[in-house]
TrEMBL record:
GO CC terms in record: plasma membrane
GO molecular function, one term: xenobiotic transmembrane transporter activity
Signal peptide segment: none
Designated name of the protein: Bcr/CflA family efflux transporter
Protein family (similarity comment): Belongs to the major facilitator superfamily. Bcr/CmlA family.
Species of origin: Aquicella lusitana
Length: 384
C-alpha cells in the first residue's frame, strides 16, 4: 500500500520531469522556439491543476479507488497520443490529456495519507514518503537524458505509458479502499459551499500557496536548466540529466532532515527556514551571474540549496494544511493540489513570454518566491 501511494504521488512529477532534457530536441524536431517547446509543460500543468478540483469531491462520494483508476487510464491514453503525435499541436493535446489523468494521483495520494494518519504522525509519514518522492525530480531528468540521447524524445512517453500500466495493475489488484464513510448524495451546490468554506480557511490557504511557490521553483528550474546546459553551455542531454540529478538531490536531503527535525522543531519554523534559503540563494544567483556569468560551479550548489529548501517546505506545509481539516478531506486535497499546480502553471506561462532565460532569471524568480512566502507567513490569520 505504501508503494502504491508513492507511485501515485510521483506520477505528476514524472509527467513534468522525465522529458525536460528533450525540450531542445522537441523544439528542433517540431520547428518551434524554446519558449513554444516549454508550452508542453504549461499545458500539462493546466490540465493537472483543473482536474484535481473534480477528483477530490468525486473521491468523497464514491471512494478513492474508482477516480484513481479513471485518472490512470486517462494518463495512459494521453501518453499514447504523445508517442505518435505527428505535430506539435497534437503533442500539446496529448500533454493536456496526461495532465487531466495525473491530477488524480497527486491530490488523492495526500488525501489517502490523511485518511490513514493524524497530527504529528501525519507529518512524520508525509516526510518519510517525501524522501522517496523527492528523488523523482532528481532521477527522472537523469533517466530522461539517457533516453533522449539513446532513443529520442518519444522514449520518455513510452516510459510514461509503461508506468501508467504498472500503476493501473497495482490499483486493480493491490489497492485497498481507505475512505470509511462515503457521501454519494452530495449535490453540486453542497460541493460548491464546501469549496467556499475551505477557500475562506486562511490558514489552510496560506500554506497551500507557500507549497505552490515551492513547487513552482522545481518547475522553473526543470524548464530553464536544459537550455542553460545544452544550448548555452553546449553539454549533452545525458550530462544535463546528471547535473539536474545532483542539484535535485537537495530535496531528498531536505526531506530527510525535516523527517528528523519535525519531532523537535515546529513545522512552521522549518517552513520559515526554507523560505529564507529561497530568498538568500535567489539573491546569490543574481550576484554570481553578474560577477562570473553562467557557471556550473555557482549554479549547481545554489540550486542544490534551493531544492533542499523544498524538502523543508513540502511535508510541513501538507501537515499544517490538513491538521486543520476535520471533514471534506477529498475537497481539501483537491484545493491544495490544484492551488499548487495552478501557481506553477501561471509562473510557467510567464516564463514562456520571456525570451532570454538563464541563471539571472532563475535568481530573480527564487528571490521573489522567498519574499512572497515570507510575507504570507508573517500574516496573523484565524481559522474559519
Amino acid at each position: 500500500m505504501f508503494i502504491i501511494i508513492v507511485l501515485l504521488a510521483i506520477m505528476g512529477l514524472i509527467g513534468t520531469d522525465i522529458f525536460v532534457p528533450s525540450l531542445p530536441a522537441i523544439a528542433e524536431i517540431y520547428h518551434q522556439s524554446p519558449n513554444h517547446a516549454q508550452l508542453t509543460i504549461s499545458v500539462f500543468l493546466a490540465g493537472f491543476a483543473l482536474s484535481q478540483l473534480f477528483y477530490g469531491p468525486i473521491s468523497d462520494a464514491v471512494g478513492r479507488k474508482p477516480p484513481l483508476i479513471v485518472g490512470v487510464i486517462i494518463f495512459i491514453c494521453g501518453s499514447l497520443l504523445c508517442i505518435f503525435a505527428p505535430s506539435f499541436s497534437l503533442l500539446c493535446i496529448g500533454r493536456i490529456i496526461q495532465g487531466f489523468g495525473v491530477g488524480a494521483g497527486l491530490s488523492l495520494a495526500r488525501v489517502i495519507l490523511r485518511d490513514c494518519y493524524k497530527d504529528t504522525l501525519l507529518a512524520v509519514k508525509t516526510a518519510q514518503i517525501a524522501i522517496f518522492v523527492s528523488l523523482t525530480p532528481a532521477l527522472a531528468p537523469f533517466f530522461g537524458g539517457l533516453l533522449q540521447q539513446q532513443f529520442g524524445f518519444q522514449a520518455s512517453f513510452v516510459f510514461m505509458l509503461g508506468y501508467g500500466l504498472l500503476v493501473l495493475f497495482l490499483l486493480m489488484t493491490r489497492f485497498q479502499e481507505t475512505l470509511q464513510f462515503k457521501n454519494p448524495d452530495q449535490a453540486i451546490h453542497t460541493i460548491l459551499v464546501q469549496y467556499g468554506q475551505l477557500l475562506r480557511n486562511t490558514a489552510f490557504m496560506k500554506y497551500a500557496i507557500i507549497a505552490g511557490l515551492a513547487f513552482t521553483s522545481i518547475i522553473l528550474y526543470a524548464n530553464i536548466m536544459p537550455f542553460i546546459v545544452q544550448s548555452e553551455l553546449n553539454l549533452s542531454p545525458a550530462k544535463n540529466g546528471l547535473i539536474i540529478l545532483i542539484a535535485a538531490l537537495g530535496i531528498s536531503l531536505g526531506s530527510f532532515i525535516s523527517s528528523r527535525a519535525v519531532r523537535h522543531v515546529l513545522p512552521k519554523q522549518l517552513i520559515h527556514v526554507g523560505l529564507m534559503i529561497f530568498a538568500i540563494n535567489g539573491l546569490l544567483l543574481l550576484v554570481a551571474n553578474y560577477i562570473f556569468g553562467t557557471t556550473l560551479v555557482c549554479l549547481v550548489p545554489l540550486i542544490f540549496l534551493i531544492t533542499m529548501a523544498c524538502g523543508f517546505i513540502f511535508p510541513n506545509a501538507i501537515a499544517l494544511c490538513f491538521s486543520e481539516i476535520n471533514c471534506h478531506v477529498g475537497i481539501a486535497g483537491a484545493i491544495y493540489g490544484s492551488m499548487q499546480t495552478f501557481i506553477s502553471m501561471l509562473a510557467n506561462f510567464l516564463l514562456n513570454a520571456i525570451p532570454h532565460q538563464g541563471q539571472a532569471l532563475l535568481g530573480a524568480f527564487y528571490l521573489g518566491i522567498g519574499l512572497m512566502g515570507l510575507a504570507l507567513k508573517r500574516d496573523r490569520v484565524g481559522i474559519y
